[in-house]
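Anyone opening a protein record will find just a pair of labelled lines. A complete record is shown below as an example:
=====
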Amino acid sequence: MALGASRRLADGVVAVETMTRFALAVLALASGVYTYLGARTILDGSPTAVFFAAIIYSASVSVGIYAFWSYMARFYPHVTNRTGRTALLGVMAVGAAMIMAMSSWLNAAALAGSAAVEQHLSETVEDYTADLDRAHQNALAAQSLLPDIQRAGERFAQLAGVERQSGSLTGTTGSGSVVQLLTQMSAQMKSLEAGINASREQVNDLFTQGQKRLETMRSLVSAPGNIEPRADQFSTEAVALTGVITSLAQTSIAPSIRRAADDLSLGFIAPVPDGAAPDLVNRQNQVMETVKASVASQSKALAKAADEILSRPPVQERRFVPLSPAAAVLTYAQDFIPAWAGAISIDLLPGVMVFILAVVHGAIRKQEQALPFADRITAGELLAALEVQRAIAANGMSLEAATARAEARSEAAAEAKADADTDTEKPNEARAKDEHSDEANNITSLDLKSRRDRSHEDR
């Protein structure tokens, strides 16, 4: 049964040999086609030059893959010693790495290059959206100071009105020095308020422009069609959006508020008291000192709030870097693992067939070694042994002489075969010698059996 099983395995190897070659050719051709599609995305020049360069490169890849796996399928299953198999495994690992380097990443670029570029554009849109929002928030941060400035301006205006009508501060009605000072402070607060309101309108206009740019960029990401023209238009929109974000960063009124806050206290100019009586002059001086202290407090609060706004990290200018499909596949490889798996499998699937053949040949050798010599000898070998035996009986040649002649012929045939064969087939020479020695042993056993039969007949 073991002999029949080994023969069935050997017949199976012969039967699938054509299919193995066909599968290697198809896989090599598929890898070459996808390599051609991927190579076109990274080559520059005229369309004709790009076409022929990609064709030549993909053809070289196909031939290299087919030749490499053909060699491995032909030699690896028949190498039995550990040193030889280890060396071939090392060669296989190096060859697989070279195949992935020259073909697999281009296959992945052909399979998922456009999707990878779209992924790059999508993430860039998200980054620009975050930059626009942060620049908008920084520009509007000064708007939070508007209520405080409005209250301060209204308070100064109300004090001036009360002093003018009832003289509640100095005890004397009329528009004197105190009223003029309070009116002056109220006008300064109104000026700051007007500047903040004007800045809000400009910030809103810029933010609206930025949102329109982002909408165009999002539509380019999700639009159908070839990715290259969309990527070029996306780059144009990105440059325009960068200008909008920079303008938003420069539109912030916080620095102006900080300078105005310093002017309130440092540039405080109190008018000369205009009271006719010395007592009124003293009251005016006291009220103006109080107003000065209030202005200093207000200036300090505005300066602190403006410093907090200015301490925010500015939005760094972002540059859009276009990526080719091949570069995008490498950059976003973790997002396209199925495409990478398919591209690598096309190139390395023949290795599975090589290991299958190695396992089958190993099983055949193991089963044949477990059989006795009588089960392993073929009909041709048996007929040759019988012919030698008859020659010995007819010529009266001794067994030793016949064995020596058989060994000499075997050595001569082995030397002639070694001259014609390659170094990889040298293990077959030792196998041939073993087979001839087995034939000699078989001849010896047959001769001894023949002698015993003759002696038995004589008796």
The CA atoms of residues 127 and 187 lie 43 Å apart. Residues 82-140 form the longest helix (59 residues). Confidence is low (pLDDT under 50) at residues 422-459. The chain has three domains: 2-78+336-365, 117-323, 373-458.
